[in-house]
Each structure stands twice: as structure tokens, then as C-alpha cells.
Amino acid sequence: MCMHDEATPHYIDLIDQTTLGHKYIKDEFDQIPRVGWQIDPFGHSAVQAYLLGAELGFDSLFFARMDYQDRAKRLKEKTLEVVWQGSKSLGSSSQIFTGIFPRHYDPPDGFTFEINDVSPPIQDDVLLFDYNVQERVNDFVAAALAQANVTRTNHIMWCMGTDFRYQYANSWFRQMDKFIHYVNQDGRVNALYSTPSIYTDAKYAANEQWPLKTDDFFPYADKPNDWTGYFTSRPAFKGYVRVLSAYYLAARQLEFFKGGSTSGPNTEALADALAIAQHHDAVSGTQRQHVAADYALRLSIGYNEAEKLVASSLAFLVDSRSSTGQGNSVTSLQQCPLLISFCPPSEAALSNGKNLVVIIYNSLGWKREETIRIPVISVPPLGFSTYIVATTKETGPSSTNSTVHTYEASDNNTIEVGQGNLKLLYSADEGKLMRYVNTKNLVSAFTEQSYGYYSGNDGTDKDPQASGAYVFRPNGTFSIKSENQTRLTVVRGPLLDEVHQQLNSWISQVTRVYKEKEHAEVEFSIGPIPVNDGIGKEIITQITTTMKTNKTFYTDSNGRDFIKRVRDFRKDWELQVNQPIAGNYYPINLGIYVQDNSTELSVLVDRSVGGSSLAVAKLSLCFTVCVPEGCDGLTIVGKFYLRIDHIGEGAKWRRTVGQEIYSPLLLAFSEQDGNDWASSHILTFSAIDPSYSLPDNVAIITLQELESGKVLLRLAHLYEMGEDKEYSVMASVELKKLFPNKKIKKVTEMSLSANQERGEMEKKISLESRRRVCRRGIKGDYIQLLGG
Questions:
Q1: pTM for the full predicted model
Q2: Which residues contact 495 (CB under 8 A, 6 or more apart)?
Q3: What is the per-residue pLDDT across 309-321, written as a single tens digit (0 to 9) for each?
Q4: For residues 529 and 503, what is the distance between their CA atoms, to the nearest angstrom?
Q5: Of 61, 315, 642, 765, which residue is least crowded by CB atoms under 10 Å?
């Protein structure tokens, strides 16, 4: 649907939007794309190379933007065209030929032909004084040879156009026609209208040995300042996209369980809105305000339609009469509005003996136990559980109350928080976290968390590039100290402990330690950020330990693979460090971790942010950006999650909890009149065989009924090769137990975007080695199901 960003989207969103676009191309033109054309995103991810490239059946991938230092080196060495292996696990079985333009995505100087451009056109009337055919042919040949000198083989490609061109296409094609005619007549080079596919075929035919590229192309800088600001720009919009992405995944599942319908609410509007929101000037946060408002409006319209579908699907499933095919569902269900801090259905006053009914749906393929703001709940895989909440006037042994303790700056003692295996120790007088203790895995580590900000650089006469939506250019680092006399407020309850901290009038946070969990959850509220001093601010939190990390940390690629990062270092060239802070920030969609010889510290996030390790044993997350003219009244609420493990034991938590963060439980509410809900409704439902759940290393990322009546199922292996000693292994899924109430007629393995059968795709790209590799990837299958 669009040229998506590669830093800030989640890989599930990338797959969904690409699938939608490929379906459109197939339906309208009966064509299957062969080439990835990512010319404008501001850096390029490893996931793009293998998942959104080779796994789609692409022959090649092309882009323009890369670090200016990297480009300079590759120009000298003729290594702008490479074979890119983006996955350590898949290696050569999922590699792709990748071409990087020697300059931007525009023609050589002197060959732009918009109506007002200054490039001299070919004048081929010999009777006119400005006749210039030979002069312009010489210019063309010189530009072609200059590019040939930095390119392997005798084939080169020019992009004839750039931003805001072809408003008057005739002027372009008139000149290109003439150039092709006269250049070919000259004979020194051969010019032709071409396509990236034709160019790729010529490169393959040359039988050249191409250099190998691994990992990714982040961060990107076109000048000494790095484009790492957009990793965090418009954090509210990034969070909105992430929430709706998970909602869309769950809505499609429920749509399938209910059964497709040609009328009534559906998920199409939300699919379209989410797809266009992956644009490299959308979820990246680099769009203008009126464009951001348009994206948000489209998402809201799509959500409102999908919300009706979710309510009707859950009502269908809970209504026992519907389950036997008798009549239509009469149950009315409500949901909590998104981005609103209260939930009217759950806060309504219950009267006349009515009780609140809570239906909790789990979109994951395994059972999970969670604490929500109501009770502790257990939810089956791909199913729901129902809970009845009644009001009571009694207090006594059956009632449970929380206790509240406040600690002032004058208090001189240590506070222990946590009733389960995890204990957090705080200093009362400083109001700071001091130590992390897990009595189960016997990890005990000094740990601090603090807030600060980078002041924004407005640019100079010599270098006017300012810190903003795209570029991160800090002018200094400043810590944020607590301004309140009350350092901590601790709330202790039967299920969890909470530590409330109000640093100042615009930063607060609540740290939660659940009795049954072994990680800390931190919910922060930032804003409105004060900018009356005229200085833009980029807010960060820092987590400090005593680990010896050797300048090394790991960040995820679009929520999939983790990539090793080394501070002030690039694998492909000797880095000249211009921005020691901004140049070491990387995009995070799932998490970041550091490790030493004995322990590893992991942090997971709820949306795209920027992250780094700028000092030994210290992790930094950048949450929000505020420029003086751009964030009046804006407040951001978000979460991150923290855990420390012994070395090599953190992957399971990152992968499992990462899935739970991406796919939160979906709640719906109704009212029970009397005590007859259980007799007239289904209380628990699971689409999976009750004796079965998905393997712990496999996730369902798509379950969708298509217009053809087929079902699209995508399964993702969550672990990289060697990532975990127990779960980095082959996994098997029993489809009959995944769909126990359906008769499977046929299963067809497809390309990732489901626009061609995988067998046919592999024949085209001639990668027989794929079939012999233990795959850690994503499988997309068409499953033809018959109702059982």
C-alpha cells in the first residue's frame, strides 16, 4: 500500500500492509512484484532484507538513503551493490540482491526536465543557433561513464525523476526520447527505457561476485548529524498505531470465529488505515500536523467499525443459542474507548441487583495468566473467559484493601517492594531505586533509574541542520531531579505493590511489581514539557547497573531479530564520530538489552522509541521530543518493562512477554440482570483443542478469513538460531488441534504476502538450498476449511 518506514513499524504491520498492496496489484493487474523499491526511508532494517524481501519472492531490493560515510567508502570500492543476508538464522537461504544508488533518487546533474527546471533540453533543429545535440550527448555519456566507474558490470540505472516532479510529464518524456535516440545513434553507450526487474536480470546474467552485507543500515546520516530523532517523534501516534495493530490482529481472529459476512461491520477500513500509517512519513512521526490528524482520523474510523465487529463476534460466541445455530445473538457488549483514561462500561453504577460481566479475550496461541485492574484472570489460548463482578457493602475477612505509605526526603531507610520472587529496594530519602533482587533465579544487582533530557540544537550558520522530527542533534545532557518533598508513595495490595513517584509537575511514574511476575512494569506520564525557555527537549530515562558491557548492547529489528551494536563503531567502515550521542541511538520496537559475563539486563517497550547504551552498564530510552512551537498541552503516557537474568536466560522473557505486550488482553463488558448469565451464555471459549496449545516458541500472527472462503494463517517462530538453548529449535504445529471444529480440506504454503504459492516462488528464484535449511521464519499458509 505504501513505501513503509523501516525503523519504527512492527514486523506484523509491515507484513499486513505489504499483503494488502500485493493483493491490490494481483487483483487489478494480475502481476506479482519482483522488486522491493524502498528508495526514501531513512535507514534500512535487516527485517526488510529477508522478511520483506526474500520471503516475498523478490529478486532484488533498491534504495537511496544510506550513511554518507558508508556511501563514500562504497563508491571507492564499487560495493554499492551487494548480496544482503539480513537473518543470522536463515543465512544464504533468505538473501537478496540489493542495489544502493550512487547519489540520491534523482538523475545526474543536468538531466531534470520539469517545466521550470534549468537543465538544458536537447535542441535538435539545426537551423537554430542553440543546436546542441552533440554537446548534450557528450554530457550524457560522461555522466554514464562516471557512474559506471563506481559500479560493477557494464549496466547502470538512472532514476529519471525525484520529489515533486512529473507535474508536466510531457517535458520529461520528450527529452528522454531524444536522449535515447541520439545517444544510441552516437554508439558509445546504449540507453533504453527500463525497469528495476530488467536491470536485476542484467546483473544476474553478468555472473558477478557480489560483496556480502549482514545486519542493517542504521543509523542514517546524510551529513554529520544523524537522522535518529524520528525513532521517537510523535510518540502518541506511534502508541496509537501499536495499540490498533494488536486490535486488528484480534479482530480478524474473532471475525473468523464468527464466520465471514458480506454485510455488517468488518476490518477493512482499519486494515487500510493501518497500512497507510506504516508510510515512511507516518508512523515515523515526520509528517506535518494536519497530515498526522488525517492519519489519526482514518485510524479512528477504522477502529470504530472494527469495534462493532469485535462486539458482535464476542456476543455471538458467548450467546449459547448462537453456538447451536438457533437465532441471532441478543447480548450487548461494550468496550473501553481507546486513548481515554477511563472506561465507562466498567465504571457505570450498578443498581437493582445487576452485576458487571467482564469477557476477556486472549489473541495468543497459549494460555496466559494476567492481572488486570479488575481481578487476576486466566484466559485460554485463542479464546475468552468470563468473570462476574458484584458490588458489596460488607467489609471483613472476605474483603481486601490496599495500604498506602508515603516517604519524605527526611526518611533514612530502605523500602522493599514486591511480595513474590521479585523485590525492588528503594532509598526513601532519595526516592530512588537502588537494587533488584530475584529470589527465584538468585539474581541480585545494583540498579538505578533516573530521568533527564537532551536540549535541542537549533543549528548554526555553518551547519543549519536543527534537531527536530527527523534529525536528533542534542546540545547538552541534563538530569531531572525530584522537586517534591514526598519522594515515594507505596501502595501494597494482595496482587501487587506500586511505587508512585512525582518528580515534578510534568513527570510522574508508577512502578508495579506483581506477585506472580518476575519483572517490573513502569508506567510513565510526561508532559506538557516546559519550553518557555525557548529550548526544545528530548526526554530520556536511564537505567544504570554495575555490569561490564564493553560498549556493547543489542536492539531489535522491527520486533524480530536482535542485532549487536557497539558504541562508536560500524562494521562496514571506520566511523568518524560527529555526534557521540545521536549517532549511537537505534530504533527499538520490542526491546533492548545489555550483558556481561554473568547477567543480562533487558528492557521491553510498548511502542517505537530510540534506545542506546552511551556508557558502561547504562541503558537509555528516549521517550518524547518537544520543540518550542510543537507540543503545547501534549502529555504522553506509556510503559516499559524491566528484568535482569543470568547470562543466556533472558531470551524467553523477552520473547514471551514481548508477545503479551504486543497483544494485550481484549476486554468487553455487559451487565447481568439477576444470576442467569451462566445458564444462558458460554463462560469460557477456546478455538483450540482443550488438550493443546501452541509451542512456546511459536506465535500466530495472522488468522483471517479471506473473500475466497480460504483462511490465511501465519505462524512465526519467535527465536533466532542460538538465542535460547531450549527454544531455538524446530517446532511443529498440529493444525487439526488448532482447528478442532473445522475440517481441513487443503493446506497450501504461500509466500509471505500470500500472492503466490511458495513452491512456485522458489522455482522462480532458484534457491534450492532453502528447502534444506532449519528455518527460523514466518510461514504463510492458505487453509481451506469446511465447517464441522
A1: 0.94
A2: 371, 376, 514, 515, 516
A3: 999 999 999 986 4
A4: 13
A5: 765
